[in-house]
Write a structure and sequence with these properties.
The complex is a heterodimer of chains A (107) and B (282). With 107 residues, chain A is mainly β. Chain A has strands spanning 6-8, 12-13, 18-24, 47-54, 57-63, 73-79, 84-92, 97-106. In chain B, α3 (76-86) crosses α8 and α9 crosses α12 (257-269). Chain B starts with a helix and ends with a strand. The chains are: A mainly beta (107), B mainly alpha (282). Chain A binds chain B through residues 1, 3, 6, 8, 22-24, 26, 71, 73, and chain B through 69-72, 76-77, 80-81, 83-84.
Chain lengths: 107, 282
């Protein structure tokens, strides 16, 4: 039940300020280790990669593995040099990419 | 050994000093995603309190912060599940909630603040859960959702969440709402169970004191369905039943007449408070 991810980015910041970014996506993170009622393995379906870029520049990136629980939540910091847009992407095993973005204004 | 004894004595002294004090509601303000919440409101006429207070004010700082941040609020995942259900086609008519009501952000705004309402068809008050079931059976040709199952709470929370921040106000002049309010008041003040407690025994007479290592609030329901730290995502009627069970009384059925009357009355007791759905409580 992957729906649109939620992100939290401050609307504005001062130049060079370190801000906190929070993201959360609803995802079942099916590990591939479980079996259904008939004993057949349930195919793995997890988000395997998360990236955050700012104006094309990588801010945060990580690989996710099957042991990570459902609805992965990331919180990290970033220094913003100028106004721009943060872009977030979650890569699913099935090839889908869930995306979100948020602008920030530097005063 | 001697040192241990001293530590023990100090601990006992600390408990004696801190443990029996009343827990006054804190002086704090709540804002969720930039929307200010009304956590203190002037009580409506005929109310036993002068000021109605959200249960949020009685909580520890960590619990309050969980509700303040919609990303950290664990129940927001359930609200998202509710959004999926809102758009999901079900029943013989091939419709979803969205087929008729469109964007919930528009069509459901205010719903959470003004339910329960009078239902002409059943001649009873109707709450959001039962209204969902009414829509499902009459418009969608789908099965009614059983109590606490099938996404009932998720969908209810999603709908109520659209009224986040709006002050609770129910219309008692509709139909027979006034007499249901009276009945709810009677339920509220009637002592039941082996412990012989009424709702008022805790939430009116002893509001602000400690019980079972927790603070007794005014028992407001403006944040339901809530995320409870002890039991997860919890519906209002589940909470009613839990409270009544704790008095060791016979537990009325969810959505029974007694509990619908109680919901009507207790909603009125929170008049003026913001809808906080989904709130976070211990």
């Amino acid at each position: 039940m992957a729906s649109k991810p939620r992100i939290k980015v401050p609307k504005s910041a001062s130049a060079g300020e370190v801000i906190t970014l929070k993201t959360l996506i609803s995802h079942e993170m099916e590990s591939g280790q479980r079996k259904d009622k008939d004993g057949n393995p349930i195919p793995r379906k997890i988000i395997n990669k998360f990236t955050c870029t700012f104006e094309g520049q990588m801010v945060f990136e990580c690989d996710l593995d099957p042991a990570i629980s459902a609805n992965p939540y990331f919180e990290f910091n970033a220094k913003v040099p100028s106004s721009g847009t943060f872009k977030f992407a979650w890569l699913d095993d099935d090839g889908s990419v869930y995306e979100a973005e948020a602008p920030i204004e530097v005063k | 050994m001697k040192r241990l004894l001293i530590a023990g004595a100090a601990l006992a002294a600390g408990l004696a000093a801190g443990g029996w004090a009343t827990a006054e509601p804190v002086d704090d303000t709540l804002e969720i995603d930039g929307v200010p919440m009304i956590t203190r409101a002037k009580a409506p006429e005929g109310h036993p309190f002068e000021e109605v207070l959200s249960g949020w004010l009685y909580r520890e700082a960590e619990t309050r912060d969980l509700e303040r941040d919609s990303i950290e609020n664990p129940a927001m995942v359930s609200v998202e599940d509710g959004e999926v259900l809102w758009n999901k086609v079900d029943g013989t008519a091939g419709k979803s909630c969205a087929s008729c009501h469109g964007d919930a952000a528009e069509s459901m705004k205010g719903i959470g603040a003004h339910f329960p309402k009078w239902d002409e068809d059943s001649q009873k008050p109707i709450n959001v859960e039962l209204q969902i079931n009414k829509c499902r059976t009459e418009q969608m040709g789908a099965e009614a959702l059983p109590f606490d199952k099938g996404g009932q709470n998720e969908l209810t929370a999603y709908i109520k969440h659209q009224s986040l921040g709006m002050p609770v106000e129910i219309d008692l002049s509709e139909g027979d709402m006034q007499s249901w309010w009276e009945r709810g008041k009677e339920v509220y003040y009637t002592r039941t169970g082996q412990l012989n407690l009424s709702c008022a025994s805790c939430h009116e007479v002893n509001a602000g004191k400690f019980i079972r290592a927790d603070h007794l609030s005014q028992g407001q329901i403006n944040g339901f369905p809530v995320y409870r730290l002890k039991s997860g995502f919890t519906s209002l009627h589940n909470r009613f039943r839990g409270c009544i069970r704790d008095t060791r009384a016979e537990i009325p059925k969810a959505f029974s007449d007694d509990l619908m009357a109680l919901e009507t009355y207790v909603t009125w007791r929170g008049t003026g408070l913001s809808v906080e759905t989904p709130a976070v409580r211990p």
